[in-house]
């Protein structure tokens, strides 16, 4: 009875995560289409809007200090969040995956050197390291993705290295080496397919974490340029108006960030539980 209830709760959590994530995906895609076809232009339409207008039928989430629609701006923030998170995780895999394979398979001085570098980066707090890198690189979508990439690369390196160390000691790998297969063939045919199985779990959990880190960078003014809608920077701008009773400019970007992180965390935890089984 207890097991069946737990299974039902787990399935509900997974479904909830995917439903929320689907909504964000659709919103991000629609915003890209609107932007591509120039269906809205904040620089022109905002001139006709009242600043700090409360939520109403014409503006469901109200307007901000420049008269921009908070609802549309919050929805546009999902696009930049998806873009930066995808690029950062892609770059992280591009660095961590091959280096982890090389380090774990060859060992020796290569393994020691790479492990020292990656462990040093890994020991620095995520927020502190991302802030420093973002400050050095400056604002920009690619720069924000690179800042997050450097932060998360050691995690993929450590995971792939440890998996490689385990798998290369298996009998079938040793047999392939004795059979005279080249190193590249052994890695691609026997090592690589087996080391990537836990990657979806780490990718999902890192995606949730990177949304928060991106928001932190935007809040500190170190994320994307000011003309690009982003939840962290919008929360920063909302702080000045919050004491005067203007709550909607902070509420909706905050909720948008919270529910996206929640959805990714739900999916990540479910994947981790399934992998552990």
Give the end-to-end Cα distance, rounded to a whole number of Å.
Answer: 19 Å
Counting helices, strands and paired strands, the structural category is mainly alpha
Report the count of strand segments: 0
Helix content: over 70%
Integer tally of domains: 1
- Low-confidence stretches are none
The CATH superfamily is MetI-like
CATH topology: MetI-like fold
Beta-sheet strand percentage? under 5%
Mean pLDDT: 88
The helix tally amounts to 11
> What best-fitting shape do the alpha-carbon axes yield?
elongated
Q: What is the H/E order?
A: HHHHHHHHHHH
Compile the SSE list and pairings.
Blueprint: H1 2-36, H2 42-45, H3 70-106, H4 108-123, H5 126-137, H6 141-167, H7 171-178, H8 183-195, H9 199-219, H10 231-239, H11 248-276
Helix pairs in contact: 1-3, 1-11, 3-4, 3-6, 3-9, 3-11, 4-6, 5-6, 6-8, 6-9, 7-8, 9-10, 9-11, 10-11
Overview of the structural elements:
This protein has 277 residues and is an all-alpha fold. The chain has a single domain (2-38, 69-276), classed as MetI-like (MetI-like fold, Orthogonal Bundle). The chain has helices at residues 2-36, 42-45, 70-106, 108-123, 126-137, 141-167, 171-178, 183-195, 199-219, 231-239, 248-276. 76% of the residues lie in helices and 0% in strands. The longest helix is centred in the first third of the chain and has 37 residues, at 70-106.
